[in-house]
Structures
1.
Amino acid sequence: MNAQDPWAGILAPDETILWQGRPDTRPQWAALTRQRMVPAAVFTVVAVIWFVQAAALADRGGVAALMPLLALPFLGIGLYHLGGHVLWDAYRRGRTWYSLSNKRAFVATDLPFRGKRLKSYPITRETILSFDGAEPGSIGFAFEPVPMKRGTRMRMVGFERIPDGNTVYALLRGVQGKIERDLPPGDG
């Protein structure tokens, strides 16, 4: 990459940027569902009780002095599930940039402990596009595996909560259409 052209070395010679944007960074409080909040509240209350009780014993020294510290990770997990995930998601979106070329979609992030990352996803005629039609809108164009305790689940990747979803969706469909028009006869 050079200072004149930040895309030098990233884009193919016949590749051009069609659109660039950023997601809406407002917290999505609607993600706080009862199914998630009730267990998180119970977990958090138990962690607080553990911390308070352990702190009362900490003045005895020795291992008892470490007990409040052992409660802190559980308190953090509880607070994250109680509402911290909404704030983290908003923060993550604030550190995210999107670009669309005539061949690929790009998602760039710059997050603490992860650093700067740029991922590209080819847009082909086989790419399954999904658009929620909302304002701001989200458009999916790829899937990535997420390791779980028991197996793997697939997470949709795309442009999340963008203000001009209809325009970007039309551009993505146009990229797919151009790919179809560029195919030799008999390959479509």
2.
Amino acid sequence: MIMGGFAALKTKDLINVGIYSALYFICMGLAEGLTTLVTGLLLPGFTSIFVPGIVGLLAGPVYMLMCRKVPRFGALTIMGVLMGLFFLISGHFALAFIPYVLCGLLADLVETGLNRGSVHIPWRVLSYLVFTFGSLGPVLPLWFMKNAYVASLVKRGKSRDYINALFSHVTAPTLIACLAITVVGALVGAWIGQRLVSKHFSEGAAKG
């Protein structure tokens, strides 16, 4: 299956990838909006820590449905590239797109290489967990590339007060918390997505 690469994707598959990528993008937007609202009221300064986990929580059904609809190598890679390009053109840190590209490819390898596009839930959940880590692209530089990140914020006209507030909670414990929240969010999102997709297809088969 992998040997066929992107050539195995037909026009209909590419259309489906585009549709599900758009839905995934909407989930990302909702996750960022909801997290900003809630943390702004309850935990100011912690938005970046929670966003990846909330993305994983909301986008599970979209991911599971796409894996069911397009069980071919290349689909998840394309989705990862599209999500990475969104980060690139929406003003995030310049290297923020790289994790989604890499995680999309790795998730593709797990889904179509190890899982072989079947309904083996553990492999599909693992592929989703890997893919969700791509959403860490905009936040990892806070911990690992602080100087470059600060320079990019200054270039974008951000004030020193804004920058200080952004980095006030960037510590080793919050990095661990961010990773843990991402894992939990992705696992719960995968569970919800798998249940919804299974119910949808089982009902469809019963009606058929």
